[in-house]
Amino acid sequence: MQLIFEKSKAGRGCTLLPACDVPEVQLPEELKREQALNLPELAETDISRHYTALAKRAYGVNDGFYPLGSCTMKYNPRIDEEIAALTGFTGVHPLQPAETTEGCQKVLALAEQYLCEATGMDAITFQPAAGAHGEFTGLLLIKAYHEARGEQHRNKIIIPDAAHGTNPASAVMAGFSVVTIPSGADGCVDLEALKASVDENTAGLMLTNPNTVGIFDSNILEITDIIHQAGGLNYYDGANFNAIMGVVRPGDMGFDVVHLNLHKTFATPHGGGGPGSGPVACKEILKPYLPGCASLTGEQPKLQMKAFHGNFLVVVKALTYMLTLGAEGIRNACETAVLNANYMMEGLKDLYPVAYGERCMHEFVLCLENLKKETGVSALDVAKSLIDHEIHPPTMYFPLIVHEALMFEPTETEAKETLDEAIAVMRELHKMAYEDAEQMHHAPHHAQIKRPDEVLAARQPILRYQAD
After folding, report:
1. pLDDT for 135-155, tens place per residue?
2. How many domains does the chain have?
3. What is the reported pTM?
4. How far, in whole angstroms, is CA 37 from its chain's centroid?
5. Are residues 376 and 294 in the same domain?
6. Do 239 and 261 touch, CB atoms closer than 8 A?
7. CA-CA distance, 2 to 387, in Å (whole number)?
8. Strands lying side by side in the sheet with 364-367
9. Do both 345 and 443 map to the same domain?
């Protein structure tokens, strides 16, 4: 497929503008470009066909089963989009007089109330733009708390080896040293390793529960207490919050601060380049350090992570989602996500060993290490083969503590028939691995793009178009 620049023909266009009815003003020469912008020139029909063709080559949640793990790819209800598109929300400016934005202020207040209730926290900021940004914000709150108490020596953040990769990165960015502790045989936190890691320099713990292998840590109260007894604080990574929302609250588990991925857990699908939202909620002890917005308080905040109120329209979608479902509906979505994951896991575990546990939460991890040893077919081969069956691949090779890992998260929105079809395909691929491994090594065979050279793509990526 040609790039739109390659389809360009000089002189073509589709702009029909009326004659200018105001005096023309020329920019000063020093502000002008030395050469014209290199923009493609096409007719409207050509532009429409180009982007329609691109859309047909893409695969999204509206195309079919999308079991990407740890990302909560879910259906985006149209009502959420329609409410967020109302001109009363899209046509405002955060510097307008407060009395003209009362509706928007109510959205933020209601969203804070409901999300604090759902997490067991006392206050929230909507400024962080996404999950990792929320992590960074939460860690800055922990840092500010210790500094205010004269405990600047607390510079260590404890993180399990199964954590999301952004956790240690965020901790380092916030100025902490990272102490990595191993997981136990059950895939959860090794209590003895945790006890051995805490000392007078412990600032806090970062934890996802349920964790990245889809297991809820039954020792969570003891874990958070160990950190508190050492003088540290507990940070809850809300990436997997959809597995417990409406059932268990991080605040009741002993966590002091949490970020939520509104663009994953509350309606707006993760990915696709659209804006995210990673609000951070905290206990009362951290409330003084939350990022603020001067347009609301009239005071310059001590911490500011993003302009004004963050990605406001994502918050509108999240509030619409919560109001539409209500407390009962949110709990039902959570329980159905867990049910779907366990149903799919049960249909596969006799052929594909499950990394940890007999039961999972919202996602599960298969270990294909033995399959690769016996047939040469890797987790990557299986994932690529799924594309030929019009199923998006699950997460590959994560978490790193599981060799040849495939992580599935079916989400609450998938019907039993879809899960049955996916299970049947996975079972068929297991059989094919023993009968025709070579075909799987070269999959996908029927996709728009066949298997790329992974090494070449990593080492010599073509990131932009070079114009002549």
Report:
1. 999 999 999 999 999 999 999
2. 3
3. 0.90
4. 35
5. no
6. yes
7. 23
8. 364-367, 405-408, 395-396
9. yes
